[in-house]
Specification:
This protein is an alpha/beta fold. Helix content is 33%, strand content 22%.
């Protein structure tokens, strides 16, 4: 009887250990969702407010940027560094524009550039660059 109880305790302990490690793994590898601009959302700011917002946060590859705005008022386009500086969008980039008003974009390692491509919006400050670190391996 004692051997049976000890065996059952060993099996239960093993399963609890597996569940514990699984929970830690899910927690460590969980990506984060960042709401761009916080409560203010994605709308006309001062020229640098979105970059200031981004500088005060830590981003990892696999995290998501959540752009919230009034549908039809703006859009989001991931661009390259030149497109960011010049507020210009290539045909390929333009085809990937999103404009639902609640857009989630997965971040990649490196510098990610985003603009609103509606006329005059980028020049008025509707742009942001985000420095993204690679996801930490644990």
């Amino acid at each position: 009887m004692k051997a049976s109880v000890a065996s059952n305790l060993a099996v239960i302990s093993f399963y609890l250990l597996i569940i514990g490690f699984s929970s830690i793994s899910v927690y460590v590898n969980a990506s984060r969702n960042h709401i761009v601009g916080g409560d203010r959302g994605w709308r006309f700011p001062s020229k640098s407010s979105y970059n200031i917002w981004a500088l005060h946060r830590s981003f990892a590859a696999g995290d998501t940027l959540h752009f919230k705005y009034s549908r039809g008022a703006h859009n989001i386009v991931r661009v390259d560094a030149a497109g960011y500086r010049k507020c210009k969008v290539s045909a390929t980039e333009s085809a990937k524009a999103v404009s639902s008003g609640s857009d989630k974009i997965l971040l990649k390692k490196g510098i990610n550039y985003f603009i609103c491509s509606l006329p005059g919006h980028c020049a008025a400050g509707m742009k942001m660059k985000v420095h993204v670190k690679k996801k930490k391996a644990h």
